[in-house]
Amino acid sequence: MTRGSVRREVVIKRPADDVWAILGDPARVHEWFTGIQSCQVDGNTRIVTTGSGLPMTEEIVTTDAIQRRFQYRITAGVFKEHLSTIDVIDLGDDTCVAVYAADADPATMALIIAGAAGSALLELRDRLEGAY
Amino acid sequence: MGRKILFVTTDQQRYDTLGCNGGTLARTPVVDGLAANGIRYERGHPQSVVCMPSRATMLTGQYPSTHGVWMNGVPLPLDAPSVADVLHSSGYHTALIGKPHFEPFLDPFLRFIENALAPQHGTRPPGGTHRGFEHLEFATHTPAGPLHYSRWLAAEHPEAVGWFYPVLDRALQVNAAGDGDTGAPQVHVNQVPKDWYHTQWVADRTIAWLDTLDADDDWFCWMSFPDPHHPWDPPQSEVGRIDWHDVPLPDGYPQAATERERILDTKPRHWRLWYDGELVSNYEAPAEWVPATLVPDQVREVNARNAVECELIDEALGRVLAHIGTCGWDDDVDVVFTADHGELQGDFGLLFKGPYHVDALMRLPLVWRPATSARVDPSVVHRPVGLVDLAPTFCSIAGVEAPSWMQGHALPVDDSDADKRGFERVLTEWDSELFGVGVHVRTITRDQWVCSAYRTGTVHDGSEGELYDLSDDPLQRVNRWDDPATRSIRDDLLTDLWANQPRVREPRLQLEAPV
Questions:
Q1: Residues of A in contact with B171 (CB under 8 A)
Q2: Taking a C-beta distance cutoff of 8 angstroms, is the pair A79, A109 a contact?
Q3: Inter-CA distances, B19 with B25, B34, B45, B307, Å
Q4: Calpha distance B48→B37 (Å, rounded)
Q5: What interface predicted TM-score (ipTM) does this complex get?
Q6: Partners of residue B458 in chain A, C-beta under 8 Å
Q7: Sign of torsion over alpha carbons B297, B315, B174, B44
Q8: pTM of this prediction?
Q9: Is B153 in contact with B196 (CB distance < 8 Å)?
Q10: Do B411 and B61 touch, CB atoms closer than 8 A?
Q11: Cβ of B171 and A118 within 8 Å?
């Protein structure tokens, strides 16, 4: 098995639109994804710089505000294949679930990326819920 | 002025690699000497047989279920309790030098302080301490990555960085390749000179830190050697110490394939599935390696190199102890020597580690040489103890009451002390969920029996288990789980096992990386 698929999800007691405003904006990824220091967006291309100084070029695949779905591919480095999907699903009652799923070859990278994103979503939850 | 503490850990070292435990391959006169003048434990068990949960247990004095590091890749929260914090608050200077691994190593985002410390802060953590340690210098099995040893080697001897074994392959899986004489996985010819090797570096940096202290300071130093964990790539100049051609096959290695497979087939199904290359439940076992392909010469070569690494550790420790002597601390230093878990090293035809609760992985080298000023008589303790007992032991040495969050108890000084204080059983846990494979095991070792119950996972249906009589089956070849003659023993052990399960941390911490 060289391809891996890893998912993390976090319930956030904030309206889906509030959470989507952060997770769905490709230019704000460094505001919530711990370990990404900065990003530049140019059309469908995003370049992020990690805490280790590693630049990663990404292709923005989907930005769907109706479904609240954002997808991107990392197009450089060790990846043979990569697709990350962020969904913000309205649970009603002004709460939502934020889902981050990474599919990647090599499989190890799916866990590294989704693992980092899962941790970042927990921190985002604490930050947003603390803001109430 | 109190007793000082040198806590020495190795990584993935078996009980039988020490001369004092009957080992004949590696010469370990330094640890043997500590054992002769101190307390040697015949049944020191880890609470997990992989690094991160086991190391978190040593630091917190808690079981994996409670501290929450349920498998490799789950980071120990920064606010987790720490014995080093207790000691530091009591006036001890504290240092951790060598391999930490409370947080994942695979960290391209540099999210974890263990990886960010060297490039961003040097050896002094922001805030004064990190997990209770005021001085930290890190190393691991490879000079790849951002740790202190890697940066030192890259700065001082850049030509040597590429001489080490590439731990991961191009698919970022643990490498299955080997370029030794036999093609054994993770065996590598490393031209690095001995003085540049991480074992020497850990001892050098320990000595350097000790030199910063005043004579009347109290100190706790965790000296954490990355070896003899794979890769087996010790300095090539030292490999000739032990000719692998002369290494006997271990008793635990059934030489006939039919016999190996017969034994494996009596165990829960994941044993044979891994052997046949159909299932990998631990990231650190190379995914591309099929244990059934292991041949006797590969076992010999791995064990020879493992023994060389054990000898280098013993010599490095000897160097540190000699330096402690020159500092005038001989009478006041307690030394505790152990490992985080063992290594299969050919037992049952397997290498590395995984959810296999047998002596190869669970029976550890454990020696406590109390300070001579404490006037503790040398002894051998046969009762079961655990790494969970180390943190309260350090508190006891320091004259500090063990905090209530510690779940172990200060190590007994002899069997009588053990009996008086109820050292009857030791528990070990395994949980893993990786790429669709989930394995969950709970094990109790008591009264010369070891009993493992497999909870429902993706491989097991909740009915499987292992039961071994260590008194007449020391190699754990006869699984008596389903033997009607031992049913009452099994049931009694299971009742004891479930009655003594530790508190479970809620909510469960997330897996954030493979290792």
A1: 2, 106-108
A2: yes
A3: 8, 11, 19, 11
A4: 29
A5: 0.94
A6: none
A7: positive
A8: 0.97
A9: yes
A10: no
A11: no
